[in-house]
Structure formats: structure tokens, C-alpha cells
Model the fold of this input.
Amino acid sequence: MKCSECKYINVSDGNGSPGRCYCKHPNRPKEVTGTELVICNSERHTNRVLIKTSPRWCPLKK
Ligand code: SF4
Done:
């Protein structure tokens, strides 16, 4: 699974700046907290997720 195609990605509004893309999966590892949940930034003025992969700790990784 790639974050850009995942329903658990949540993009915050950057208000003209790049937004932040967070993982909202309920089963993400508990030790991953705070800014570690920021997977990438979006493009400015869009909510496009730029990362082409997913983090090491992704719960959907097989
Ligand atoms: S880390 Fe995994 S579960 Fe979280 S948004 Fe990315 S692909 Fe989805």
C-alpha cells in the first residue's frame, strides 16, 4: 500500500503553505507519535500526497 492511495492518509490544510500528511490508521504502532506520524508534506494549495511509498512501520505493509 502506498500512502498516496490509502484511505487512512489525512492531509492538514497548510493555508497556502504545504500541508502535512498524517497516518490515521488505528493500528499504527503506538511508539510512532507526534511528528513521526507526518509522512510527508503536500504540494502547496493542494492536498496531493507526494510520497510514493509508505513508512517502514506502515500497518498495511506485508
Ligand atoms: S502509513 Fe500505511 S496505513 Fe498509514 S497512511 Fe500510509 S499507507 Fe496508509
Remarks:
- Residues 11 and 21 are 4 Å apart (CA to CA).
- Residues 1, 3, 6, 8-9, 23, 25, 39, 54-55, 58-60 surround iron/sulfur cluster (CB under 6 Å).
- The mean pLDDT is 89.
